[in-house]
Write a structure and sequence with these properties.
- With about 140 residues, the chain is α+β, with helices and mostly antiparallel strands.
- The chain folds into 2 domains: about 60 residues, no CATH class; about 80 residues, no CATH class.
- Helices cover about 30% and strands about 20% of the residues.
- The strands form 2 sheets. A 3-stranded antiparallel beta sheet has the order 3-4-5. The chain has a two-stranded antiparallel ribbon with strand order 1-2.
- The radius of gyration is 25 Å and the shape is extended.
- The N terminus is likely disordered.
- The structure holds zinc ion.
- Zinc ion (ZN) binds next to loops.
- GO terms for molecular function: DNA binding; DNA strand exchange activity.
- InterPro entries: DNA_bind_recombinase_dom, Zn_ribbon_recom_dom.
- It holds the Pfam family Recombinase.
C-alpha cells in the first residue's frame, strides 16, 4: 500500500535553484488508513500465531471449517482438528474436534486432552462472541 505513504516530488529548476513540492496522499487511497493498519496488524498476528503453533497454512473460514487451525490444545499446545466419528447408525454419527497429537503415532495414545463436540464448540464460541459484544 505505497499510495498511503507515497510522497510525490516535483523538481523544478529555476535560476539554478531547486524547488521541491511534496504532495502527500495525492491519490485517494483504495482503503482508508485505519483499515489498512488493522489489516497489517491482523496479518502480523496470524503470522505469529502460525509460527507459534507450527501451522503451515491457515485455511479460509467456511461453514465447514470455522475453527480449523484456530483451536489450540491446553495440554500439549497442539492444534485441534475436525474428525467425523462414523457409525452404521446415522443417529450416532458425530462431528468432534480433538487434539491432533492425540494419536500422532498410530496406535499409541499421545495427548490426553478430551475431544469437544462440534455443536458444543460452536455454542461456546457463539456465547463468548456475544459476551464480548455485550461489553462494547
Ligand atoms: Zn493436545
Amino acid at each position: 500500500m505505497e499510495a498511503l505513504t507515497q510522497r510525490i516530488s516535483f523538481h523544478i529548476e529555476n535560476k539554478g535553484e531547486v524547488a521541491q513540492y511534496y504532495v502527500e496522499e495525492s491519490h485517494p487511497p483504495i482503503i482508508d488508513r485505519d483499515t489498512w493498519k488493522a489489516v497489517q496488524l491482523e496479518r502480523e498476528r496470524r503470522k505469529a500465531f502460525m509460527e507459534k503453533y507450527n501451522i503451515q497454512k491457515m485455511d479460509y473460514i467456511t461453514n465447514d471449517n470455522t475453527f480449523m487451525d484456530r483451536i489450540i490444545c491446553g495440554c500439549c499446545g497442539g492444534v485441534y482438528g475436525r474428525k467425523i466419528w462414523n457409525s452404521n447408525d446415522e443417529r450416532l454419527k458425530r462431528t468432534v474436534w480433538q487434539c491432533n497429537n492425540k494419536y500422532a503415532v498410530k496406535g499409541r495414545k499421545g495427548c490426553d486432552n478430551r475431544h469437544i463436540d462440534d455443536e458444543v464448540l460452536y455454542m461456546r464460541y457463539l456465547f463468548l462472541s456475544l459476551m464480548r459484544l455485550a461489553k462494547i
